[in-house]
Amino acid sequence: MRATPTLVLVALLLLCAGSTAALATRGAPPVVKIAPAPPGAQTYRCTGSRFNLFGNSNGQAVQNGGKAPSFSTKGKTYCVVSLATYHWNGGNGQAPGSIGLTVVSGLGGAGQTLGPLAAVGSAGQGGTANVNWTADAGQPLVIDGTYACKDSDPRSWSQNTTSQGKGFCTVAVTNAVPVATPRPAKPTYACVGSQVTLFDNSNGGGVQNGGKPPTFNTYGTPGIGSYCLNSITTYHWNNGAGKAPGTIGLGPLTLAAVVNPVAPRKAVGSSGSGGAPNVNWTVDFGGATPTIISGIYTCKDSDPATWAQNQQTGGKGFCTVTATPAYVNNFTLPSGLHLPQGPPPPPATTTHAPAGRVRCFTGTLSTMLLNPIHVAPDQWGMLLLHCAIPKKDGFQGRLAPTTMFVIARGCAPFWTYPSASGGNPPPPVFLSYTGQPGAPCSTAFTTIPYKVIGPWRIDVQARDAVAQAPLRTGAYGVYIRYPGGDVQAQNTLNVP
Length: 496
Description:
The protein has 496 residues and is mostly beta strands. The chain contains two helices and 33 strands. The radius of gyration is 27 Å and the shape is elongated. Mean pLDDT is 77; it is low at 1-40, 342-356 and 412-442.
């Protein structure tokens, strides 16, 4: 489940966690589940009776050393329910390992492995233990293409001439029926409170030309992750000659910044020390429609050759950013549920109180808030809903989760819920994902363990719930799936 800068519109889809007893019972009608997918990708419903899509076992004598058999779905889409392999191993069986599917071509990305899933052993002929390995897909895998069975112990994997040296493998599936994709959540923002200087690296030292873009973020105040941008000012002393104003904007460095873009605008010049003309360039972003910023940005100036910098700024161009805290005043979830918000509560925050006493967070509302934002692999953090949201609309009400999942930040713009501008998320922009290279973003979806603690709090674990392994080092977007769709936490889960 790793990322590469490739747009993949059809994802490897893991179904929501739930009971698999009906799926595992031969002949019983399976539990109907909805497979999650990124915006723009197809989602599926797994339905109908299970059947064996592929099976190459036979009753002839066997030897060890099976090679991976392959099969095709022949242009159809299925949900994998279980995988089974055979390990006679000279009548000794073999302690069960894992079984998966290698993607030869099609859904999931060529070269990737679906699973592997932990296998359970059962007795075979003469009561020999652990001859049959079976792995049930607690979260069935959606397949469409050509795949090869993958067994963790090929040395004891049974094969014979009838199977052409291929290890015995059985793939049980149900049909996968396309369904509609969840609509993105749409928040609108209001600007409340006093203007603050969000970033200012200017100083009174001597300056030179050739400034490089400085970086800043919107996360300096706990509980406030979004702001209404008021102004950006850059400095062009240019040896006292100033410079005719060009444009100023902000460049995105993270997911939240990508979905809250600030395109360059024409600046207005003003004089500086000694009346030098056009030394200060300023863009006023005020207006009826607020310009929302959230995340990590760089200041962008159209004329770096005259942009003032000095040793104190580390060669970064002088830039000042002013803004007003923003909060969601009308959050429409994919189900159509509206969560209108009144004026924000007092600025005090409870997000850093001892974990056992935290119930929800106060301060300016953006969306759901992570606390802490740095969680070691396999450790637990909290996802906190704003205290102003009624209990009936909280995590034990209409927002009750069916699945919690994370997506690497390098892929997340493709999956983003919500977008401050409303409508569909923007095209994918690939940033700084630190996971395994060479894998498509379509497989970046990772379900994580969670516990609903109360109406405003969910505890989440930095662990891959399917692979049963700690999350790898990286930055992740955190999402809650509820029956109406997916909603994203405001800030980033950082796994060191």
